[in-house]
Amino acid sequence: MALIKYGPNISGASGSVGGTTYARNRAGAYMRQRTKPVVPVSLRRSAANSLLSDLLGIWQTVITPAQRTTWDNAAKLTSFPNKLGDAYTPSGCNLFLRSSIQLLNINRPYCTAPPVNPVAPTMAPTMAFHAVNGITLTAIGAWDLTLAGKELYQMSPPMRRSINYFKGPWANLAYQALTDFVGLPLIFLPLIYCVAKSRYFWKFTTVLNDGSVSSPSIVYCDTPDTV
């Protein structure tokens, strides 16, 4: 593995080009030889691939040309952050997939028309450890609780407390109605399941009923030496 330092022409890189993978850890940016995973495809990944294939078929055969044009026009006015944090404009098909996959995750049907505002508000969660209840959600920032939709969330396995970031694989995909967040605090990991001396990460994504999807918000919470 070789460490690299970016100059004025290239400020960052993420992903693979040819046989080289560019990444970043706590020591800085580095590049390594690209390798193929030896772990077999999980049931969750297989299901995700099947869902993506089904939605691509719907885009090509069910969504009409006029509807696809509407998605294309909405996508031109939309931007999302990429792996480097820079904004990019998706295609109409990408926007359709982004909305529909998350709608299906909250048990709602896919949408044929794009939402008026494709980017939903991002929740600003705060997690804290409670000696009796375990890890709880204590605050969500400035938030409009009248919005109609769900909050998707996923959790990491227990990590060392020195770990400062987590990219996956995430587990335990679940969701709650946005109105549930009125009664804070909410218990997200009961004390009986908490592992001492650990750091847990959570990823929150807002999905509104019209197909609007937020950028994910990732937070963490540490457990004490004894629980």
Structure report:
It is a single chain. With 227 residues, this protein is of the alpha+beta class. It folds into three domains: 32 residues, no CATH class; 63 residues, no CATH class; 97 residues, Sandwich (Immunoglobulin-like), CATH 2.60.40. The strands form four sheets. Strands 1-4-3-2 form a four-stranded antiparallel β-sheet, with no helix packed on it. A four-stranded antiparallel β-sheet has the order 10-9-12-13. The longest helix is centred in the first third of the chain and has 19 residues. The radius of gyration is 20 Å and the shape is globular.
Give the arrangement of secondary structure elements:
Blueprint (H helix, E strand, L loop, with lengths): L1 E2 L11 E3 L2 E6 L2 E6 L9 H19 L3 H12 L3 E2 L5 E2 L3 H14 L20 E5 L3 E6 L9 E7 L15 E7 L8 E5 L8 E10 L8 E6 L5
Antiparallel strand pairs: 1-4, 2-3, 3-4, 5-6, 7-8, 8-11, 9-10, 9-12, 12-13
Helix pairs in contact: 1-3, 2-3
What's this model, at a glance?
With 227 residues, the chain is of the alpha+beta class.
